[in-house]
């Protein structure tokens, strides 16, 4: 088994984790970023970013790629698409094992595990993914030219994408579990004014059916308790994100929404363990807030490491 | 042009030649978009381990992309990217939409071995 010691191990390589990597490596801290998926996290899901200060317009992929290059250029080690098989962070020396074979230790850990698209978790969803079920309107919208589709959700993404999908689709039905939308009023108004969009409120898809591709869905109306079967060509599931904290349960303090609890210094209750980005408990999830969290966590970790080294010397 | 370090299949001739010269081929046909990038990145990560597999990409919107789009195995697909695995020139598996590295590894192991 390979073993290597780092000053800091960062778990997650979205904007928060990469910012940590940039700051720590530039501060000459030996830093390792481990990521279970592709580098960039949710950022690569964004086609165009226009509100990142200092950059007028950039694709999410390009921004993530630049952040990665910056971290690497300062000497950070990044391992992506790994599987974290053991995480022991309660002690003075932290231990992370990946892929059941490589062991890394560190003095500090920063959790920047980000979030992932929520799925409905109902029968047929996995089976028809890519065969009628999609999570990305900009990627797959053009497959549904003149088709009848459903958009699930009631937030800004769902309503904005519903409007955008009317460029292709014959009809778009928005299925939302509540009797009101979470989206901003202007997004709601735009969707309501679009003649191709209709709404099924207080309703949930409970099953996807078809043969080789999606053909129909079962919808439960929670107000009337009625279940209807609706023939459909495609369903776009846009119901927001959830934190990637499954592996942290029982290890770190999580709130009722499974978000990591930190103080304003991005410290968790475990000494030497910080958290940053979308997996933490906070109000606004933006690339800019993730970057800010990452900066605070990195500076906190540097201070922690310097204090620790000073104590060891004395 | 796709921004990956995989072999780019930019013509039907190159596609046919790649299938002829390699027993095991994985082709990811997509765009530099949210659902495709994770698959390309997984392929880049797996490339050094699976020396017996040729990892290639193809632009979905190109004329060449038609060789993947018109396969019987992808006729029901409507989620990018379209990923097709070939053994001795024949399709052994095809997937639609985003796939994790574990899902890809499982297919590679099942069809090509290491």
Molecular structure report:
In chain A, strands 1, 2, 3, 4, 5, 6 and 17 form a seven-stranded mixed beta sheet that branches. The longest helix of chain A is centred in the C-terminal third of the chain and has 27 residues, at 287-313. With 314 residues, chain A is α/β, with parallel strands linked by helices. The mean pLDDT of chain A is 94. Chain A is 24% helix and 28% strand. The longest helix of chain B is centred in the C-terminal third of the chain and has 12 residues, at 101-112. Chain B is globular and about 30 Å long. The model of chain B has no long low-confidence stretch (mean pLDDT 94). The interface between A and B is medium-sized, with 30 and 23 residues.
What's this entry about, in short?
With 314 residues, chain A is of the alpha/beta class. Chain A contains six helices and 17 strands. In chain A, helix 1 (15-26) packs parallel to helix 2 (60-73), helix 1 packs parallel to helix 6 (287-313) and helix 4 packs parallel to helix 5.
Number of strands of chain B: 5
Tell me what portion of residues of chain A adopts beta-strand conformation: 25-35%
Strand order of the largest sheet of chain B: 1-3-2-4-5
Please estimate the helix content of chain B.
25-40%
First-last Cα distance of chain A: 34 Å
Provide the succession of SSEs of chain B. EHEHEHEEH
Topology of helices and strands:
The complex is a heterodimer of chains A (314) and B (114).
Chain A: E1 3-11, H1 15-26, E2 31-34, H2 60-73, E3 77-79, E4 84-88, E5 94-98, E6 102-111, E7 115-117, E8 133-134, H3 137-140, E9 148-152, H4 156-165, E10 171-175, H5 185-192, E11 197-200, E12 203-210, E13 214-221, E14 226-231, E15 234-237, E16 241-243, E17 273-275, H6 287-313
Parallel strand pairs in A: 1-2, 1-6, 2-3, 6-17, 8-15, 9-10, 9-15, 10-11
Antiparallel strand pairs in A: 4-5, 5-6, 7-16, 12-13, 13-14
Chain B: E1 7-8, H1 12-21, E2 24-30, H2 37-46, E3 54-59, H3 66-69, E4 82-87, E5 90-96, H4 101-112
Parallel strand pairs in B: 1-3, 2-3
Antiparallel strand pairs in B: 2-4, 4-5
